[in-house]
Amino acid sequence: MKGIAFTVFLFLSVLSTPLLAQTDTTKKDAKTQAILEELVSKIENGKKNSKTSFEEIAGGIVLDQTKTRAGKDFYDLFIQNLVLPDNVMDYTIVIDETPGLGTSTIVKVTINNFEIFGNYLQPKRDLIEETANEAVELAAEFIVNYNQIQLELSNKEQTGTGIF
């Protein structure tokens, strides 16, 4: 009895295999296309409604990852005061904010994945301006030094031929 049931099962599975292989793919392609179009529209809408903003300044980009009004004020002051030489290129600055205790938050400035500045940020305008000016000085100095090091390392004397 078990042998007959196994034979019937095997026979049905062999017969159903070509039927599974002959499914209509146009329906699947149409569904896939509709899903892709929906995802593209969601991504485009997400870009418009994204909380992360950015500014492009002198060959680099500055990302705003702040969460509070004090953080946004810090970001605005940072952008207004940041002045870099024209030959500085290819940098990414991320201004991130982490909520702290009470009304203070922790603001961090990261350049090319190197955290160069971190400080508590009080919601007072004069303290925000002072902190932003300090961060701008450190960021400008870091970017110029980083660019100089990259230029020195890309010099012909520093690059090898790959032959030992």
How do you describe this structure in short?
With 164 residues, the chain is an alpha+beta fold. The chain has helices at 2-21, 25-49, 69-81, 125-153, and strands at residues 53-57, 60-65, 92-99, 105-111, 114-121.
Strand order of the largest sheet: 1-2-3-4-5
What kind of sheet is the major sheet? 5 strands, mixed
Cα(first) to Cα(last) distance is 75 Å
Query: Count of helical segments?
Result: 4
Structure overview:
53% of the residues lie in helices and 21% in strands. The chain has 164 residues and is α+β, with helices and mostly antiparallel strands. It has a domain at 54-152: Double Stranded RNA Binding Domain (2-Layer Sandwich). β3 and β4 (105-111) form a beta hairpin. α3 (69-81) crosses α4.
List keywords for this structure.
single chain, 164 residues, alpha+beta, Double Stranded RNA Binding Domain, five-stranded mixed β-sheet, 4 helices, 5 strands
What is the secondary structure topology, with strand pairs?
Elements: H1 2-21, H2 25-49, E1 53-57, E2 60-65, H3 69-81, E3 92-99, E4 105-111, E5 114-121, H4 125-153
Parallel strand pairs: 2-3
Antiparallel strand pairs: 1-2, 3-4, 4-5
Helix pairs in contact: 3-4
Organism: Acetobacteroides hydrogenigenes
Keywords: Signal
Function: May be involved in the biogenesis of curli organelles.
